[in-house]
Automatic annotation (TrEMBL):
<protein>
    <recommendedName>
        <fullName>Kynureninase</fullName>
        <ecNumber>3.7.1.3</ecNumber>
    </recommendedName>
</protein>
<dbReference type="InterPro" id="IPR015422">
    <property type="entry name" value="PyrdxlP-dep_Trfase_small"/>
</dbReference>
<feature type="binding site">
    <location>
        <position position="96"/>
    </location>
    <ligand>
        <name>pyridoxal 5'-phosphate</name>
    </ligand>
</feature>
<feature type="binding site">
    <location>
        <position position="200"/>
    </location>
    <ligand>
        <name>pyridoxal 5'-phosphate</name>
    </ligand>
</feature>
<keyword id="KW-0663">Pyridoxal phosphate</keyword>
<feature type="binding site">
    <location>
        <position position="255"/>
    </location>
    <ligand>
        <name>pyridoxal 5'-phosphate</name>
    </ligand>
</feature>
<dbReference type="GO" id="GO:0097053">
    <property type="term" value="P:L-kynurenine catabolic process"/>
</dbReference>
<dbReference type="InterPro" id="IPR010111">
    <property type="entry name" value="Kynureninase"/>
</dbReference>
<dbReference type="GO" id="GO:0019441">
    <property type="term" value="P:L-tryptophan catabolic process to kynurenine"/>
</dbReference>
<feature type="binding site">
    <location>
        <position position="225"/>
    </location>
    <ligand>
        <name>pyridoxal 5'-phosphate</name>
    </ligand>
</feature>
<feature type="binding site">
    <location>
        <position position="203"/>
    </location>
    <ligand>
        <name>pyridoxal 5'-phosphate</name>
    </ligand>
</feature>
<dbReference type="Pfam" id="PF22580">
    <property type="entry name" value="KYNU_C"/>
</dbReference>
<keyword id="KW-0378">Hydrolase</keyword>
<dbReference type="GO" id="GO:0030170">
    <property type="term" value="F:pyridoxal phosphate binding"/>
</dbReference>
<dbReference type="InterPro" id="IPR015424">
    <property type="entry name" value="PyrdxlP-dep_Trfase"/>
</dbReference>
<comment type="pathway">
    <text>Amino-acid degradation; L-kynurenine degradation; L-alanine and anthranilate from L-kynurenine: step 1/1.</text>
</comment>
<feature type="binding site">
    <location>
        <begin position="123"/>
        <end position="126"/>
    </location>
    <ligand>
        <name>pyridoxal 5'-phosphate</name>
    </ligand>
</feature>
């Protein structure tokens, strides 16, 4: 087995680690799948924004540059991370709020159909919002109950689809097992049943190659504080395929979604562009942080990032296997995202003791430890050091 230092020495992305703030007091940070590290460029950009733009331009900043940021940075993110042509992606709100908007919009483009399909393994916010939107619209939730590791496949989804299917909401990478769903075949299956699909890309944006336009995805959302490294609470993204734009009506249609923002007219007319997904005043500093994160990913290239992610996760699996720990993440690289999950009866205690020893993983109820491997910032040496601590504690 190659040493982790050999693997780092031949890693084409190795130099990117220096572009981030690395806390030398930590042995290993294995939680970039929950909150990514801080890019140095973002520190500088935000300091300049505060000093020169906020401090210097005050209200003039809106018309000089800030007003278009949700769309221009949305376009940058769409092009670099999502395979999305311009005019279909915005940066706004949280993933949860965008999901709420898109669930309503998606249900609205399939009038006469009354079911929303979701799997029981999906992230809590996705499940709760589907229930809430179904309640509000008098629709029914149809649950799919896959195995955690194999997760949602065409065979699992097919029996839940039919003439009543309006919307299907799926997460591209399962937040617990790390399973990567087959976006192409599942999207095609939903379309064959006449429904539309919303993909939650929180755990794949910036780390898995995604082709929303080419695969004819209808709607998508995702967060930017994980592999996009935009910081805690950074605004999320939302994508609406151009063919749905005219019919996509969202329920928080505030003044920022209006056709003419500063006309402040008596009657509401919705913007014909992707701006119709906005609601209120956008968080400028947060969007600038997203822009810096996106530019680092564009510079490295998602293809290279994905290649390193596969190598890092394979390496972690090898080390965990050697120690005899139970892994619930698929072993086939094409079937996993960028975290590896261990199941252990003492997972909570182990995760706490890892933190005491300078290794940050995360714990998910009831018995899972997730090891997030973020290709721009996690070195092979760091992964090895963190896993060695886990193995030592588990012995
Ligand atoms: C799949 C998935 N969807 C949504 C969210 C959260 O969304 P929000 O940023 O609104 O809390 C997360 C993580 O927090 C997630 O893992
Ligand atoms: N969004 C989070 C938060 O606000 C606090 C703590 C953690 C998170 C997370 O990102 C959780 C994450 N989406 C998960 O996969 O579990």
């Amino acid at each position: 087995m190659a040493t982790p230092h050999d693997l780092d020495a031949t890693d084409p992305l190795n130099g990117f680690r220096d572009r981030f703030v690395i806390d030398d007091d930590l042995v290993a940070y294995l939680d970039g799948n929950s909150l990514g590290r801080l890019p140095k460029a973002t520190q500088e950009r935000l300091a300049a924004f505060v000093r020169e733009e906020w401090g210097g331009r005050l209200i003039r900043g809106w018309t000089e540059s800030w007003v278009d940021l949700p769309v221009t940075v949305g376009d940058e993110l769409g092009a670099a991370l999502l395979g999305a042509a311009a005019g279909q992606t915005v940066i706004a709100d949280s993933t949860s709020v965008n999901l709420y908007k898109l669930l309503h919009a998606a249900a609205g483009v399939r009038p006469g159909r009354d079911e929303i399909v979701i799997d029981a393994t999906n992230f809590p916010t996705d499940r709760y919002l589907v229930e809430s939107v179904a309640r509000a619209r008098g629709m029914t939730v149809r649950w799919v109950t896959p195995d955690l590791v194999d997760n949602v496949t065409v065979e699992v989804l097919r029996p839940a689809l039919g003439e009543r299917t309006a919307v299907v909401l799926l997460s591209h990478v399962d937040y617990r097992s790390g399973t990567l769903l087959d976006l192409a075949s599942l999207t095609a299956e939903v379309h064959a049943a006449g429904g539309v699909v919303i993909w939650d890309l929180c755990h794949s944006a910036g780390v898995v190659e995604i082709e929303l336009d080419a695969l004819e995805v209808d709607f998508a959302v995702g967060c930017t504080y994980k592999y996009v490294n935009a910081g805690p609470g950074a605004p999320a993204f939302a994508y609406v395929a151009e063919r749905h734009l005219a019919a996509a009506e969202q329920p928080i249609a505030g003044w920022w979604s209006a056709a003419d923002l500063f006309a402040m007219s008596d009657t509401y007319e919705s913007s014909p562009t992707i701006r119709r997904l906005l609601s209120g005043t956008p968080p400028v500093a947060g969007i600038l942080a997203v822009q810096q994160g996106v530019r680092l990913i564009a510079e490295a290239g998602v293809e290279q990032i994905r290649a390193k992610s596969e190598a890092l996760t394979a390496y972690a699996i090898e080390l965990l296997d050697e120690a005899g720990l139970e892994i619930v993440t698929p072993r086939e690289p094409a079937l996993r995202g960028s975290h590896v999950t261990v199941r252990h009866p003492d997972a909570r205690r182990l995760a706490e003791e890892m933190v005491e020893r300078g290794v940050v993983p995360d714990f998910r109820e009831p018995d899972l430890i997730r090891l997030g491997l973020s290709p721009l910032t996690t070195s092979f040496a760091e992964a090895a050091a963190g896993i060695a601590v886990l193995v030592g504690l588990a012995e």
